[in-house]
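#struct-help
A.M.: can someone run this one for me? Single chain, 142 residues.
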Amino acid sequence: AMQDDLIATYYLVANIKYHERVQTNSPHASNIKFHVANLCRGIDGMFSLLVNFVILIKATEVLSLFLNFAALQFLQTIDNIALRLCADGYLTERLEFVANQVMTTQLPNKNNEWLRSLDSVLFVSTLTALLIGWGVVNFGSQ
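D.P.: on it. Structure tokens below:
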């Protein structure tokens, strides 16, 4: 899906907590960097969703809609493609090492049951906001 970054951020916020043991392999990986990275990923996902929503609402032709979505799909997955290229060793050995370290690092789950359901709450809130926006655009001008 195109909004993988947003859904991944919701999951991380609700279910994963930072732990200091990450610093044994990555000494510069701090708690603040973990949260800032997730915040940036969430903002990226939200803007991605907003752009897709606007394109969908403004579309007048089906062919141009599909072409726009295909272009956006490529742009939104280019970072994941770059990570795979690094992990597969197509760039430098240092980037291969770092990419594989990023992909294999595991963090513990949160124990709080309310927080673990937060990803569902965030998803439903986002869906509600999109439905309200769709309603305003379609029925607000009548």
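A.M.: thanks! The mean pLDDT is 88.
D.P.: also worth noting: The first helix runs from residue 4 to 15.
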